[in-house]
Q: What sequence folds into this?
């Protein structure tokens, strides 16, 4: 089956910079990008008219916590009144409250919720999504979450990348015992059953220390899991440097990282991943040092961090806008971060993240005639088509 996308105002290939093309058509064959060029429609082509539209790679949301039970709107309201995320967490809210709701929910319920949320992100142009566990903490619910993520992977039209997240120490268990449970039992179980591609750990003063994070990630690496890390969201406890030392695929949040951290990550090939939705949602004052990332020529990814506590934003279009408005990223940097560099943060750039011959035809057709209108029309539903492997999976 051949699909021709033609008449686009702009095609952004993301090959070098934005890779802007005009008066060019795009031919898709068997789910892959076959050719870019001046191509005339033929009788056997299915034609998609992209007149007045920007065509770009589908969004790659490389950091989400999209499977969970319950919701936490009261915490949102409390934060608006001035209470801090960390204080809410210490008072028994935060992650612990979602752990309770997720443990109580059965697999079917979690699957249904996950499917609905994936449908929503698809409407906003996301064609690949990473999903973390981490709201179980103990084996039973962690494995339940990972099973749900696996089922979703087989049942939804977009790519799903599963991550085993070591998120917090559960109550009623000693820290050291939990560390042992994670490294000696849970990681080997998850890896042997291929329940996750990545292992991630929340390295911060309210979660795991640098030393504990190192032990967890080293155990994961020994079991052939790829590595991610939540670092420098609230306090800099050396997590970014650890990410560099362990050559993690990505390090995420990075609000309080130093210039040296940025350079160390660049040298080790770690993809720095920024989560502007979380900054806005939690009203955090610290902002990532964008100048330092620019100076180091870092390939910065941006992602939603979709989760019930610190960011309920489904739309990568809005994340792009917030990266510009809240972090001062250039429009071009934000768009590259949400596609090309997102794919790099998942180790998938060989297949997705740019429009190049031979790559998967994962595309989004946007109802704007130039790319600068993408964040500018903030809040508008500008997705006309979401296309996964050459098939229209969402159409307005
Ligand atoms: O990435 N920082 C830690 N974990 C999540 C939030 C989890 C929650 O509050 O439920 C995050 O922001
Ligand atoms: Fe997160």
A:
């Amino acid at each position: 089956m051949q699909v021709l996308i033609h008449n686009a105002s702009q095609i952004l290939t993301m090959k070098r910079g934005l890779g802007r093309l005009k008066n060019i058509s795009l031919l898709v064959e068997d789910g892959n990008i076959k050719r870019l060029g001046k191509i005339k429609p033929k009788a056997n082509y299915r034609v998609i008219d992209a007149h007045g539209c920007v065509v770009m790679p589908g969004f790659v949301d490389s950091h989400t916590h999209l499977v969970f039970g319950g919701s936490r709107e009261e915490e949102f309201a409390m934060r608006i009144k001035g209470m801090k995320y960390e204080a809410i967490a210490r008072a028994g809210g935060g992650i612990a409250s979602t752990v309770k709701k997720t443990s109580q929910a059965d697999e079917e319920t979690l699957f249904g919720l996950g499917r609905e949320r994936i449908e929503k992100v698809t409407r906003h142009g996301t064609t690949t999504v990473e999903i973390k566990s981490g709201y179980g903490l103990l084996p039973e619910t962690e494995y339940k979450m990972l099973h749900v993520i696996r089922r979703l992977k087989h049942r939804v039209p977009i790519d799903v990348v599963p991550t085993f997240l070591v998120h917090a120490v559960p109550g009623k268990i000693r820290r050291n015992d939990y560390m042992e449970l994670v490294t000696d039992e849970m990681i080997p179980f998850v890896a042997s059953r291929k329940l996750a591609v990545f292992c991630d750990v929340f390295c911060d003063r309210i979660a795991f220390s640098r030393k504990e994070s190192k032990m967890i990630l080293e155990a994961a690496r020994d079991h052939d899991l790829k590595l991610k890390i939540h670092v420098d969201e609230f306090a800099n406890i050396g997590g970014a440097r650890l990410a560099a030392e362990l050559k993690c695929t990505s390090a995420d949040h990075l609000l309080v990282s130093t210039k040296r951290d940025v350079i160390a990550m660049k040298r080790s090939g770690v993809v720095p991943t920024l989560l502007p939705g979380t900054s806005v949602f939690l009203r955090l004052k610290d902002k990532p040092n964008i100048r330092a990332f620019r100076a180091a020529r870092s390939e910065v990814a941006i992602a939603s961090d979709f989760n019930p506590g610190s960011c309920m934003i489904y739309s990568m279009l809005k994340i792009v806008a917030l990266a510009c408005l809240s972090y001062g990223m250039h429009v071009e940097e934000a768009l590259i971060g949400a596609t090309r560099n997102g794919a790099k943060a998942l180790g998938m750039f060989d297949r997705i993240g740019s429009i190049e011959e031979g790559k998967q035809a994962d595309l989004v057709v946007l109802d704007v005639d130039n790319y600068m209108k993408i964040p500018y029309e903030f809040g508008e539903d500008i997705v006309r088509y979401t296309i996964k492997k050459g098939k229209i999976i969402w159409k307005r």
Residues 59-345 form a domain with the TIM Barrel fold (CATH 3.20.20.140). The chain has two domains: 2-57+355-395, 59-345.
